[in-house]
Amino acid sequence: MKKVVILATVLAISALYASSLKDLAKKCDLKDASSCKEVARMYYNGKDAPTDYEKALNYAKKSCSLKDLEGCIMVGSLYNEGEVIKHDAKKAITYFNEACELKSGEGCTLVGQVYAQEALAKEAQSKEGVQKNGNMQGYSKAVSFFNKSCNLNSAKGCYNLGIAYSFGKGVAQDDNKASAMFKKACELNSPAGCYNLAINSLMHKDDAKTKEAAKGYLTKACKLGDMRSCSALKQLKL
Q1: Is 39 within 8 Å of 50 (Cβ atoms)?
Q2: Would you call 57 helix, strand, or coil by DSSP?
Q3: CB atoms closer than 10 angstroms to residue 12
Q4: 87 or 204, higher pLDDT
Q5: Who has the most CB within 10 Å: 7, 40, 207, 220?
Q6: CA 66 to CA 45: how far, in whole Å?
Q7: pTM higher than 0.70 for the full model?
Q8: What mean pLDDT comes out for the span 187-192?
């Protein structure tokens, strides 16, 4: 008797899930972006729907076409990660840029990261170096999108811009501008931004005021979960 009850319950739940998926798919057909996105997630996660990455991709594309920035980021991520969908950097950039155009700081950051990854890969493969192989163009594009992202108050965008200035990738190397970007990232609660700001400060000055400021940045980063900063506080005895 128990087996019959359990089976009936399972069938009822399955029917409910199928109904939910069907209803959301219908809403998606009626151009409801959030429904398209939810169906994409269901197929991707295999929750309340069979796992189907191609269907997940297609529904995410529908969501993006309806100006849903999260849907655009989902499509871009699938192409960029290349785990369940074939890697395609150009398509990843296209969809991340759709989100960026919708004023998504995350979308702009992701476009920049793809350009930076591509430039870094070419640089690593090159025997002649970044200048002679035109990889600076890729870094310059990355910086442009990191700048857009930072202007949209994305902590990751500001942090990546700080890294670009630190290493002179796509921009002239400038420690002051790097620190300014790390400071903004820190203010936006980026633990990595706070950590880099502290280290940059200590590398250039060793006075009491600088040490006190660095202690504040590292303390904030530590509270935000950055273990490097927690260790640095102990090692530097700040």
Answers
A1: no
A2: helix
A3: 10
A4: 87
A5: 40
A6: 22
A7: yes
A8: 98
Tokens of 104: 């998504």
CA distances to 5, 6, 8, 100, 162 from 1, in Å: 6, 9, 11, 57, 66
Domain ranges of the chain: 189-238
Q: Which of 186, 191, 99, 195 is nearest to 149 (CA)?
A: 99
3-class DSSP state for residue 119? helix
Give me the percent of the chain exceeding a pLDDT of 70.
Answer: 87
Q: Of the given ranges (7-11, 103-107, 124-128, 167-171), which has the lowest mean pLDDT?
A: 7-11
Q: What is the dihedral of CA 121, 127, 131, 132, to 10 degrees?
A: -120
Residue matched to tokens 């501008």: 177
The residue written with tokens 């310059």 in the block is 140
Alpha-helix residue ranges (DSSP H) falling in the chain: 2-29, 33-45, 53-65, 69-81, 89-101, 105-125, 135-151, 155-167, 175-187, 191-204, 208-223, 227-235
